[in-house]
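Repro:
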Amino acid sequence: MTWSIVAHDPRTGEIGIGVATRFFAVGAIVPHVEPGVGAIATQALVNPFYGIDGMKLLRAGLSAQETLARLLELDAGRDHRQVHLQDRQGRIAAHTGANCVDWAGHVVGEGFSVAGNMLAGEAVVKRTAEAFEKSRGKSLAERFLVALEAGEAAGGDKRGKQSAAIRVHTTEPWPALDIRVDDHVDPLKELRRLHDASFERWQVFRQFMATRADYVGTTDRDTINAAIEAAQAKR
């Protein structure tokens, strides 16, 4: 199941994952992201420990390739898995098991990777990658949307549509954006609606939240509400 994109934008410092599939609640199991550490997408016959244990290995300082090698060594089911990841230095590693359902494969670009299985064809991954590269200058979440929409237009998951998700972090353990569509006839369309809706309040409000550098953040409600009202007036 699934095709996904793992990426880091050095311009904004954002790191994250975008994913879509014909499967329930893909955002609950595929994407694993931690700023300053890396990002992992585990899919096909999903082994969730690729994300859980993989993040521990990245956190300990292993490279993306070293982390991948360790995970595959532990898993006798590796031929049924697909995983791609990026470490804190932007290095990428990817694996598509020999027994993943066709079409299955991955591509690695500058600062990103795309991987998918059970797809309508190779064009899904290629178009996703091309659209992502052409969308430079936009926010990472917007780039994920554009890329996944291009992959869907190329055929997407050959079984159909059901769920999609985007998770993006900047500098904090909490996400700058974490949106999921768990079960929908057109999950990418609904994901874009949620993305657009996030600008009504969330994208403004999160700028006032506590950070590691400022444990309090802004607590003055008048300041927060004024910023939200100003942002809404511009929309």
